[in-house]
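Example record for the data management plan.
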Amino acid sequence: MANVAVEYYRSGMSNKSPMTRRGFCLLGGAAALLPAVGIGADGPDAGEDEMRSVSALTTERWNFFKDSYWYVPAANLRAYIYTPGSQEVTFATDQTVIHITDYRRGYFWGVTGVQLGDGNISYRSLVGSVTPAGSVYLAFTPFDAGRNATVTQGFGEMQKKLGQWTMVNQMSSGPGAQLSIFHWAYMLQTKPGRRTWDSLPGSGLSVPEFLQDCPPGPELRRA
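Corresponding structural encoding:
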């Protein structure tokens, strides 16, 4: 098709008629030339290869997820609890600590600990994903598969605040839970040497103390 368009264009130009040049454009000659320039002999699969390369590059921005720790700052500790039996809504502090142990091209996994008020810390495994644009999905699953517990889901977005990345998450208990807990927070990253590493807001425990009884999380299976 491209060769036909080129021959038509050459014959039209030799006629030196404005109407011929106009006719070339109206007949789609320019559009016929574009595939030869853009796709050529590579065909449509070239676009798929390019998208794979772009996806790999854009997910590299989140490489810092690997072996990272996230916590709830003091301003966002409040969570709400809905009890279906009594139709009551109450609130409690909720410190959630996430340890992302590994990250691969937009997918990550690890563990999490949750403490409501002064209660015991409960632990769950974590698997999730983050898109190149920064949309986050989280799934928290009980380690004890034998008990009747549901998966807690979270949705979030990576946003920069005061020069650092925050994970703005919304989380809720899954259907069938005896209590429905709703919580959103600008989760922040913490590291050894920072004040929050040694004393978590709402808990007072250090991050190692908070996670000391947590079972090992998911690991990547290698063939």
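Summary line stored alongside the record: Residues 1-41 have pLDDT under 50 and may be disordered.
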